[in-house]
Specification:
By secondary structure, this protein is an alpha+beta fold. It has six helices and seven strands. The strands form two sheets. Strands 3-4-6-5-7 form a five-stranded antiparallel β-sheet. Strands 1-2 form a two-stranded antiparallel ribbon.
Amino acid sequence: MKSYPYELPYYLDYRYNPPDRCFFNHSGRKPGPRPEWLTFDNFRDEMFKHVDNIADGRWEAVSTKDGIVWFRFKTLRDVIKKICNNDAAVMTIMDDEIMNALVFTVLKAFKEMCVYWGMLDHGEFWSKCRVINMDEKITETAYLTPVRTAFFNVMPSTLERNKPYKLRYSVAKIKPCDRKSNRSSHE
């Protein structure tokens, strides 16, 4: 285990959320305690700013007609860093496993209100997905987190109506890959 020059806060401590040897095998993952700086309103409002938004030529989170907003991990990480009230322990995280544990803990804090956990393998907060454009061509394969549009208190049709055309064309559908393909071959 890595040693850190400072003591990790309880919500980042590996004793609550031990790392796994295999990147894709998090079946034993349990969320840590809820961080003090995490509130429903600030998390939801900050997440909503990224929905159907294009930054640096890539979408951060995209809504679909079926009532799901698909978030990239980088976007979730940026949201957490924005709402953590400049908590030094969060702002200086360099280890992907610690950030994964924190993202998982934050998403689990909202139970079924936020994420469609039934679409994911146990202990995961993302799913391997194919992004399909209007021409029915796969434009990319990415690991995405499915979030309910109801979490944002908005109807899917409203999001679709306000989505930029470029994004509507490039992301017509998102299809999760077979759940078994999310796992590594080393299990």
